[in-house]
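Researcher: Here's a chain I'd like modeled. Treat it as a single chain, no partners, no ligands.
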Amino acid sequence: MAFGPAGISDTSMDFFLAYDTMAVANEFFFNGAPLTVAIEAEEEEEEPPPPVAESLQIFSDSVSSPIIQGICIQCHVTGGLAGSSALQYANSATQGFLDTNYNTLVNYINGGGSSTLLNKPQGIGHGGGVRLSPSSTDFQNLEAFVNAVLAE
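Model: Modeled as a single isolated chain. Structure tokens:
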């Protein structure tokens, strides 16, 4: 029973039970000691933080710094050699760069660019040549990120 909406908290209530018996008609008997119920203030449940998308976790932990900031941004930035590419990244000095770059990639992948995103760093149709070996941990992390985005 919730007493909080009625403004009742941090108190107690005593209850006495009354009963009759067939042995003594029309007579009530009461328990000698009250039943005491403590009413405490309801604890407000703190809402858990929203779950972090798996793709965002992979991007933050394994893609943003080593791949985007460490390799791709050398050319994939406004004014860079890949300045006309659909993928332009914000550098780590830019406020909100993580969200910006994550959203750029998610939109690119969801727009049908997942295979291109995985092919280009291997040097397939990439003016910058091979940037990631398919057997490298970085490539495997990029592939895991792409798969997570597609699954969400």
